[in-house]
Amino acid sequence: MSEALANLLNETRQFPPPAELAAKANVKADAYAEAERDRLAFWERQADRLTWAKKWDQVLDWSNPPFAKWFVGGQLNVAYNCLDRHVEAGRGDKVAIHWEGEPGDTRTLTYADLHKLTCQAANALSELGVTAGDRVAIYLPMIPEAAAAMLACARIGATHSVVFGGFSADALTNRIQDATAKVVITADGGYRRGKPSALKPTVDEAVAKCPSVEHVLVVRRTGEDVAWSEKDLWWHETVETASPEHAAQPFDAEHPLYILYTSGTTARPKGILHTTGGYLTQTSYTMHAVFDLKPETDVYWCTADIGWVTGHSYIVYGPLSNGATQVMYEGTPDTPHKGRFWEIVDKYKVTILYTAPTLIRTMMKWGEDIPAGYDLSSLRLLGSVGEPINPEAWIWYRQHVGRGELPVVDTWWQTETGAIMISPLPGVTEAKPGSAMTQLPGIVADVLDDQGQSVPNGGGGYLVLREPWPSMLRTIWGDDNRFIETYWSRFGAGAGAGGAGDWIYFAGDGAKKDDDGHIWLLGRVDDVMLVSGHNISTTEVESALVSHPSVAEAAVVGAADPTTGQAIVAFAIPRGTAEVSGEAGEQLIAELRNHVAKTLGPIAKPRQIMLVPELPKTRSGKIMRRLLRDVAEHRSLGDVTTLQDSSVMELISSGMGGGK
Ligand code: 6R9
Hints:
Keywords: Acetylation, ATP-binding, Ligase, Magnesium, Metal-binding, Nucleotide-binding
InterPro entries: Ac_CoA_lig, ACAS_N, AMP-bd_C, AMP-bd_C_sf, AMP-dep_synth/lig_dom, ANL_N_sf
Strand content: 15-25%
Structural class: alpha/beta
Strand order of the largest sheet: 12-11-8-6-7-14-15-23
CATH topology of the domain at 532-655: GMP Synthetase, Chain A, domain 3
Radius of gyration: 24 Å
Helix content: 25-40%
Largest sheet: 8 strands, mixed
Bound molecules: ligand 6R9
Binding site for ATP: 386-388, 410-415, 509, 524
EC number: 6.2.1.1
Number of strands: 30
CATH superfamily of the domain at 532-655: ANL, C-terminal domain
Oligomer: single chain
CATH class of the domain at 532-655: Alpha Beta
Distance between the termini: 28 Å
Family: Belongs to the ATP-dependent AMP-binding enzyme family.
């Protein structure tokens, strides 16, 4: 990427960790040097945080790149590490999950309770003929059974494939077929936006097309009527009547733990495969290091859905392997009112909150009076994941949720990486708003230019990972070639003749190093704009827009332009109080265009800005710029199946042509 991009960045604020947190932090600054001295020995020490049935013979086997094997010869059981060992150590009465249903019903599960339910589910699955290596699809709302189902699979060595409960029958069908799942675990439905939302009919439609499925286990959550077939079994009649005695067998460190499909931009989703020992080592360590988790006193809450990797790694495996107490919430942030999240923080005295920029920007739009109405004094650490967080959103989060004093950890990672890779350490790093800052100890990240050269500080390019890491994906399920092509063929040895040398993982994200060498994520490479020969990142223009007091959220795309190649087209959601109709709207648009030009330079001035009420988002909350590009270029919309709310696009398309 060009120098224009490198010059855009101008965020200079910096926030050191609170002294008390720094003094008591789980991980201190020496971890970096320790890992650098001997990376593999460092990861061995982190693997030792787990309980192994058999110790490994070799830390890393990288003799057949890019197919990695970690902790070769080692054996362990993931569910044992997440449950049994805490119970055996006398912590069975400790709360594992404070569950809050959307309608306000609650359940409290101790480690002993969750252990019992998991053992029963493991026995039930075994009785249904599920054995190690079989695949089980999980299509559930955010209820404790989702965690128990995943852990039950892990316990018996079955590979789970969790499919987000908002996905359609087609999406579910494709995923069940790709993994040839033998059993589906679902529910009659869950609660969304104040009413029951059915799941079972979607499963029925999918299972009709999936001959591999032998049984469907159905949790009763909403109590609504469901159609019933001979494959269906009620969870409460099958699992809850099964024996609670179950001895966890150890599995090989490289035994497949789960497949998780990334929606991606192409039609065919990629089944990302994660395995056992390395995955648990890194999710467990990063939970301890990045969230500074103190299992005795912390109450942790990750607002993600279990259908995403964040839910896998930081609701199930990371927190439970560390013996955390956590909150799990079934519903939406504005049901029955816009203070619901803060009410939950207040009620359970949450100390660590992990959420997404899309949520933070929504809260900004709703206004700071809402969090101000609750007691958030229990909080001590805030995290962000999923998209680049705009500096103003970061500052708002710290100010209005974090009392202007809490550390914010902006954590960069992917379904493919399995665990957090780039993030501040809360007791060490002087964080800069908008930057994920530094590779974690044991991780080797870099930013390369088009030629594959590492860019100097101040330069921008492509984010890569130079060394294998324990929780890395092992392949794309059933498609090794696509694995190599997608991630390993852009740079390094995998790029063939021109790219000799080491194997380099291509993350698909644009990034830059600032003058101190800190990393700033700039959005997906596909989204980068080329304006008059200059690469400009969507993230930076969006952040400039969000830094204007009248803008809550913005999305920026490059649209074909006869003179500049691509021109910047922006979509902005005004903040609650901004006047946006008629002349006031025109005035605001003119002001915003100038504001961007002033903040980033004239090259980044949008050709056109539209004020919109909403933005198209994936179901995991990421902005779908591809669809906005279709609108900006007056094309009919491409694949909208992963869109969260399809009415949004109609609203935006019908308004197009209005803004200047
Ligand atoms: C964990 C997760 C991965 C993509 C990733 C990047 C974006 C995630 C980010 C971030 C900037 C962060 N992303 N965290 N970008 N800063 N802190 O979200 O996994 O759903 O696979 O998405 O999300 O573009 O490549 P996944």
